[in-house]
From TrEMBL:
<dbReference type="Pfam" id="PF08386">
    <property type="entry name" value="Abhydrolase_4"/>
</dbReference>
<keyword id="KW-0378">Hydrolase</keyword>
<protein>
    <submittedName>
        <fullName>Alpha/Beta hydrolase protein</fullName>
    </submittedName>
</protein>
<feature type="domain" description="AB hydrolase-1">
    <location>
        <begin position="92"/>
        <end position="266"/>
    </location>
</feature>
<keyword id="KW-0732">Signal</keyword>
<dbReference type="InterPro" id="IPR051601">
    <property type="entry name" value="Serine_prot/Carboxylest_S33"/>
</dbReference>
<dbReference type="InterPro" id="IPR013595">
    <property type="entry name" value="Pept_S33_TAP-like_C"/>
</dbReference>
<dbReference type="InterPro" id="IPR000073">
    <property type="entry name" value="AB_hydrolase_1"/>
</dbReference>
<dbReference type="InterPro" id="IPR029058">
    <property type="entry name" value="AB_hydrolase_fold"/>
</dbReference>
<comment type="similarity">
    <text>Belongs to the peptidase S33 family.</text>
</comment>
<feature type="domain" description="Peptidase S33 tripeptidyl aminopeptidase-like C-terminal">
    <location>
        <begin position="435"/>
        <end position="534"/>
    </location>
</feature>
<dbReference type="GO" id="GO:0016787">
    <property type="term" value="F:hydrolase activity"/>
</dbReference>
<feature type="signal peptide">
    <location>
        <begin position="1"/>
        <end position="19"/>
    </location>
</feature>
<dbReference type="Pfam" id="PF00561">
    <property type="entry name" value="Abhydrolase_1"/>
</dbReference>
Amino acid sequence: MLCKSAALLAGVLISGVSALDGRRRSSVIEDDHGIDWFPCSGLDAKYSHGDELNISCGYYDVPLDWADHSVGAASLAVVIYPATKKRRGTMYINAGGPGYSGIEFLLQYGPNHIRKAIGEHYDFVAWDPRGVGHTTPGPPSCFHTAEDWEAYFNGTLEETGLDIKGNLTDDDQLYKFYSHVPEMERKYRGLGKRCAEAESSKTLAYLGSAAAARDMVALADYLDPGIQELNSWGFSYGSMVGFIFVNMFPDRVGHVVLDGCMHPLLYATRPITEYYLNSLESSEETFGGFATGCAMAGKNGCKLVQSDSDTAADVALRIRGMLDLAHDLFEFGADLTGTYTSAQAREHLYNVMATPLLWSQLAEEMHAYGKDLTAIAANTTCSRALSMKQSDADSDIGPPTYEYVAILCGDSVDAGNMSMRGGFEAIARASKYVSPLFGPQWHIGVHMCFAWPARAVERYTGPWDSKLKNRILIIGNSVDPETPFGNAKLMADLLGHNAALVRQDGFGHVSVAERSSCITNIISRYFEDGTLAEGSDATTCPIDDDVVLFPNSTVA
Ligand SMILES: *[C@@H]1O[C@H](CO)[C@@H](O)[C@H](O)[C@H]1NC(C)=O
Ligand SMILES: *[C@@H]1O[C@H](CO)[C@@H](O)[C@H](O)[C@H]1NC(C)=O
Ligand SMILES: *[C@@H]1O[C@H](CO)[C@@H](O)[C@H](O)[C@H]1NC(C)=O
Ligand SMILES: *[C@@H]1O[C@H](CO)[C@@H](O)[C@H](O)[C@H]1NC(C)=O
Ligand SMILES: *[C@@H]1O[C@H](CO)[C@@H](O)[C@H](O)[C@H]1NC(C)=O
Ligand SMILES: *[C@@H]1O[C@H](CO)[C@@H](O)[C@H](O)[C@H]1NC(C)=O
């Protein structure tokens, strides 16, 4: 969570504002309560590959406010991937983010990863949560156009990212960094006001994780009437929705998997600024794995290696050198159009840490990036190698939408307990104590809850140790750059005997980041007959031998 890397897991990010299409149902819930399924290509042409697998989409209406049905209705965009053998039930997927489309996630991971683990006997169902994708209310918008946004944030941290040299621990840089507090406080207060005045503000209070848990239960009551036990797999931020679900509805717990886990106590009961430090806990170690794997592969196997005697430290130093050079060029006013700024390159590095299967490609990109920078430095821009920044060329990008912020801040503790200064301090502390490489990043969601105009009408803040109808399975990767293993352990500890903990002994974010037949087998057996290991010690599962991140390198 707290990053865009889940975009890699969820495929392409949600495509801004979705036009209302003719299939959208009227929003009178007392009306027909059913779902009229249609091929998902009817929702978006990019979903057409699901049509031949009988993956279908539809809308399901729920009350905006579960405690007051008179407020109106939300219309959830739902996707179903039917069982291909004798049906045993339904498995509900909670995708990451917050703010990622469940439909997109299921279309990307349902037919391969999830089908492999859960088998052919379950329907898979996912949906775009409130405030996301094709659901109504859709993504909150606070600017009319991208140009409005650009003009508003022009030249601020929001636009440039955090462009620093070294590691944001020396006094000069810190002084300069903190000097932005008043400006950003003003900008975010202004943004909060804009969002409060926008059309989408009317429904902000009905977005959030507790509502998502209730929506899932309502979907299950409709699709499997009379069946008490609900099955679910929550990935990344989806683990938070899942953890809320099991604690809010302990009697409804069937087979539930939480994978790549959030820290529930920090998320629900502490200022979200503090969350930033937790999310980065294993990020430095992940980068260490990348550098080690690259160095082991040698000159032929990893482009960032210059001589076969290079160590991981040499590779890491080379990358830090690029970030510093890019920063110097930026400060100097060099034209970096067509490549990454230092801030962008750092974010890109962090994002790809989540997906080790892309590390080898990342090494090639960084190699090319180094060449780009050298060329710019030498003022020979014509010899640019490979541009890393192709997508920015897209001209008609709409204004940013705020689904991530809306859900995060909607769930968050009251705004009065947070400040802009607190966000800056979180970055400085993360840089000093948690990750010198990835701490210095600017993530809006962490920083603007103090100015966000709404909180969810329902926020679940515990208890977290409910006695569950069935035991659940909690999965954490040993070295996950976004959701450290300790979070999975914490969830398991909170639930005691009600949970079994499994460690996937590899890198990346959530278990689908690499491949472990051991994990797949544990999940399959669990869904087959409920079997889970006893005891509170984590079972450890190795990554499959055929997972190769770099040639001739054993890092996985
Ligand atoms: C899709 O559904 C039809 C009708 O139920 C069935 O005949 C066909 O085998 C299904 N195709 C797949 C790929 O599951
Ligand atoms: C941003 O500010 C610069 C000057 O600082 C100005 O030249 C440019 O036109 C501004 N861009 C927008 C979109 O307002
Ligand atoms: C930050 O950089 C300085 C100067 O390069 C170095 O001495 C220090 O150890 C670094 N701090 C961390 C936490 O890496
Ligand atoms: C991997 O190692 C083998 C045997 O040591 C060697 O023949 C091969 O060239 C290496 N491949 C790469 C990409 O370095
Ligand atoms: C390259 O050099 C020319 C002439 O000195 C200068 O005008 C231009 O701004 C330089 N380009 C970059 C990218 O620094
Ligand atoms: C701050 O948080 C406490 C609980 O931790 C809450 O009781 C209080 O209302 C909050 N204060 C403000 C101003 O939001």
